[in-house]
Specification:
The complex is a heterodimer of chains A (339) and B (332).
Chain A (H helix, E strand, L loop, with lengths): L1 H12 L9 H10 L2 H18 L1 H8 L11 E2 L5 E2 L22 H36 L2 H16 L2 H11 L6 H12 L2 H15 L2 H8 L4 H37 L11 H8 L7 H29 L1 H10 L3 H13 L1
Antiparallel strand pairs in A: 1-2
Helix pairs in contact in A: 1-14, 1-15, 2-13, 3-5, 3-13, 4-5, 5-6, 5-8, 5-9, 5-11, 6-9, 7-8, 9-11, 10-11, 11-12, 11-13, 12-13, 13-14, 14-15
Chain B lengths: L1 H30 L5 H6 L5 H10 L6 H14 L1 E4 L4 E4 L6 E2 L4 E2 H36 L4 H15 L2 H15 L15 H35 L2 H8 L4 H39 L4 H10 L3 H29 L7
Antiparallel strand pairs in B: 1-2, 3-4
Classes of the chains: A mainly alpha (339), B mainly alpha (332).
Chain lengths: 339, 332
């Protein structure tokens, strides 16, 4: 126990806490040592690829997500897909939707576009607002700081789901829905990023190299852009990586409630709403979006954990030692000494 | 102790101030939108006369700050308004009137609130027990197979959206295995036993997701405490492992658990909306989704304010508890 502890502390002490431009390689090296994170990264890459290639994939299948196929469902039995396993076959790889006969494979892969697109868009908005508010708050005078900090506190205090739900009520339905959902999630949940950015900026601002920049007459804006932003990257990326799966879940939840992404645009959450009553007649209609959501959120969460470990190795090594898995801790410590 | 009382008082005043600011923001966002507010508030089926009447009731000719003041007055002391033929009174916490269902918003909320409170409070008890228990167990069994299994399980719990868990549980337990009937809410005052049975699955579903977060947090902060010097000293003095984990390390995890519980109260309320919709529980969440779908503005605004009130309250209580649990916190 104690050997590993000492080794890990020693390794931790030599670690650069703020990876700058040269930290990118260090980051990859640390991420590579985590098997779970690598698998997760591969899954995420595959999902992104599927989302980007959705038109291509459906073209290969010869289907599209919105065409109705009334001939493929049995209207006498309430719209159950004709054929075994919900109509799975060469034409429809994953079967068709009950009642409408729309192609499930096409809806699933186009749903990946909506899910990932909305989540990434929302995260981008959150990071943008959060960093601007946090940095301004830390660099501004007392009043600016007070005002922005209180505003941040209030944003953090407001329950995200409820606010997003309520805001969706008043925007006219002509507004493109996926963009709207991303914007609303982004505008309601930037508080934590702002807090992180403010705290980090307050720390960085006292460092010598920032003082040197200020003494050589750089403007505040230039200091913020050139000297502070690179230092903010690590904590902000860490948190943003964990926001993406959360945003996916929120989009799915809003669409599940019928107020998020609306038909005919496919979305996994929305598919689950209508699949609810079909679990016996067409189980894959329920299992596919549920499985897709589960795998996506899980992979992104594991990847987020890996990113955190790679960016904050001190906390990670402390935890690893704490697990008491002696072999694991030793191996980790040795690895860090080697690198 | 006066320092502590002062701290609690300041925290309470801060909470009131936060609520006021939230109410201003919500009022401005919803009642200063471009477009015909009276028409939107009244609903699509309103005649021009009704719209005109609504515009008068909301005093839409007044400047915005006066309208807000009027709204606030309604909440604090109540207000009178004309229903066309007679004058009706809306007593103290008056949140306005739903023109689509012809009911006072406060009345709607009061009939729905017990359901939502039953759901969230019951689930909270369950998730604290399950989450902290799992966290302690995996910190105690650290490095062994059972810890790995628990860690994997909690990760899956964190990664599964709450409505997916609920949907799967409902289909498997109620649909396939027929262990429980499909939940149908029974009021506590009608039949406490049936009430508990009807809420069993919703409680469990809501708790599962949150419990996973708590298990991760409990485990992480206990492990952090276990790696500290004073624990090494205890161990050197021959304090047993069970006492180290169960007493000393758990104590270190207490403050973060309280802090997370307050933070997660908001997200649990969001989860409750999903669960109420999924299981058909007639609570605030279900009503809110309905109100959003039919654009019933007064109900939406009232619900958001009431939920905001509970979340701010939970945060304030947690801050005070946090200070009690962790003496190192500087009271400011």
């Amino acid at each position: 126990m104690s050997e590993a502890l000492v080794a890990a502390e020693a390794a931790g002490a030599g670690v650069e806490p703020v990876p700058g431009a040269s930290g990118a390689r260090q980051f990859w090296r640390r991420l590579r040592t985590q098997r779970a994170a690598l698998v997760a990264a591969a899954v995420v890459a595959l999902l992104v690829l599927v989302a980007l290639a959705a038109p291509l994939l459906t073209a290969v299948e010869g289907q599209d997500p919105t065409t109705y196929h009334p001939s493929l469902v049995d209207s006498a039995r309430g719209g159950v897909p004709i054929g075994s396993f919900g109509g799975i076959g060469g034409d429809h790889w994953l079967g068709v939707e009950p009642q409408t006969g729309r192609d499930l494979f096409a809806r699933l892969v186009y749903g990946a576009r909506v899910s990932l697109g909305v989540a990434l868009g929302a995260t981008a908005v959150q990071v943008l607002i959060g960093v601007v508010v946090g940095v301004t708050s830390a660099l501004g005078n007392r009043w600016v700081d007070q005002l922005l900090s209180r505003a941040t506190d209030i944003i953090v205090a407001m329950p995200l789901m409820i606010m997003a739900l309520a805001l969706l009520a008043i925007v006219p339905s002509s507004f493109p829905r996926p963009v709207l959902v991303a914007l609303i999630i982004g505008f309601v949940a930037w508080g934590t990023i702002a807090k992180i950015a403010r705290a980090q900026t307050l720390t960085l601002k006292e460092l010598d190299y920032v003082a040197a920049a200020r003494l050589s007459g750089w403007s505040t804006w230039r200091i913020a852009r050139r000297e502070l932003l690179p230092g903010l990257a690590a904590p902000v990326i860490t948190y943003a990586a964990l926001m993406v799966p959360a945003n996916i879940a929120i989009e799915a939840a809003l669409s599940f409630l019928g107020v998020g992404v609306k038909p005919p645009t496919p979305s996994w959450g929305q598919m689950l709403t209508s699949a609810n009553v079909w679990y016996q007649a067409a189980p894959q209609y329920l299992l596919l979006p549920a499985g897709a959501l589960f795998v996506t959120v899980l992979a992104l969460t594991v990847l987020g954990d890996g990113v955190r470990t790679a960016l904050d190795p001190r906390a990670a090594s402390r935890l690893r030692v704490g697990t008491g898995g002696k072999r694991e801790a030793k191996a980790a410590a040795e690895k860090e000494v080697e690198s | 102790m006066s320092g502590f009382a002062g701290f609690a008082l300041r925290r309470a005043m801060g909470a009131v101030l936060t609520l006021l600011v939230i109410s201003v923001i919500i009022y401005v966002v919803f009642y200063a939108t471009p477009g015909n507010v009276a028409q939107i508030t009244c609903g699509p089926r309103c005649s021009p006369e009704q719209v005109h009447q609504v515009a008068q009731q909301l005093k839409l000719d007044d400047p915005l700050y006066l309208r807000y003041w009027h709204f606030l007055e309604g909440i604090l002391v109540g207000q009178d308004y004309s229903t066309g033929t007679s004058v009706a009174h809306c007593s103290a916490p008056c949140l306005g009137q739903s023109y689509q269902s012809d009911q006072q918003v406060t009345q709607i909320i009061l009939t729905k609130l017990p359901v939502s409170l039953s759901l969230v409070v019951g689930a909270m008890v369950l998730w604290l027990l399950m989450g902290v228990g799992t966290g302690v167990l995996s910190a105690w069994r650290r490095g062994r197979f059972s810890e790995r299994a628990l860690t994997g399980l909690t990760l899956a719990g964190v990664a599964t959206p709450v409505f997916v868990i609920g949907l799967v549980l409902m289909i498997v337990i109620c649909g396939q295995l027929e262990l429980l009937p499909f939940p149908e809410y029974v009021s506590f005052t009608d039949d406490p036993e049936q009430w508990a049975w009807s809420l069993l699955l919703p409680w469990f579903t809501l708790a599962l997701n949150e419990a996973a977060y708590f298990a991760r947090l409990t485990r992480a902060s206990m492990l952090e405490t276990l790696a500290e010097d004073h624990i090494r000293t205890f161990r050197a003095y021959g304090v047993g492992e069970r006492s180290l984990v169960g007493r000393h390390a758990l104590r270190g995890a207490l403050a973060p658990i309280i802090a997370l519980n307050a933070n997660d109260f908001g997200s649990a309320v969001g989860g409750a909306v999903l669960i109420e919709t999924l299981f058909g529980l007639p609570g605030i969440g279900q009503e809110l989704v309905h109100a959003v779908n039919v654009v019933d503005l007064p109900v939406v605004v009232g619900m958001v304010l009431v939920i905001g009130f509970f979340v701010v309250l939970a945060n304030a209580v947690a801050d005070v508890l946090y200070a009690v649990a962790d003496r190192r916190v500087v009271l400011t």
